[in-house]
Amino acid sequence: xxxFRNTEANRDWQIRxxxxxxxxxxxxxxxxxxxxxxxxxxxxxxxxxxAFGDKVTRSLRESVERGARWSAVDWANALAQRTAVYRxxxxxxxxxxxLLSPTLSRPALAVDHDAFELITIGGEIAxxxxxxxxxxxxxxNLSGHPALSLPCGWSxxxxxxxxxxxxxxxxxxxxxxLAAHLERERPCARPMPL
Length: 194
What we know:
Layout: H1 8-26, H2 36-52, H3 58-68, H4 72-92, E1 99-102, E2 119-121, E3 124-127, H5 129-133, H6 138-143, E4 147-154, E5 160-166, H7 172-185
Antiparallel strand pairs: 1-5, 2-3, 4-5
Helix pairs in contact: 2-3
């Protein structure tokens, strides 16, 4: 039987520890990549954003502005760092078949949460959305490793909690097979709250 027991008392500590562990295992921090994709986005958005005025969200406008400050050298360095992240991540699979983590560090944010506003976890300010809410997701989006989020429980407010499963490159079937096995053994299906 598969399972894991966690207590309320050490949950927040474990989440913070896991986030730091991912950074240590891969050898980088979220702050290094907050503008890398933004520079490329400016090319397609800058010229048309003015026509949409207030319909362009603050987070998109600010991302484009940050990206505009990146030089070609910055972009090339970011691509080199991305390659290093891929290599470090892929090396983990010499020791592990898959990596498991929470999908998010806390339940869903309010739909109108400002993307640049700090978030709280356990009643304490935890940091930015990218650095504190989904610190387990973006490294694998960056490295291109197959990953999925599997519903595995519900918060006290009835919001879904996800388990992220990550595999080595070209191991999509392994990730999907484990998810299917977990769904069979520990089904979490229930109507989504609307």
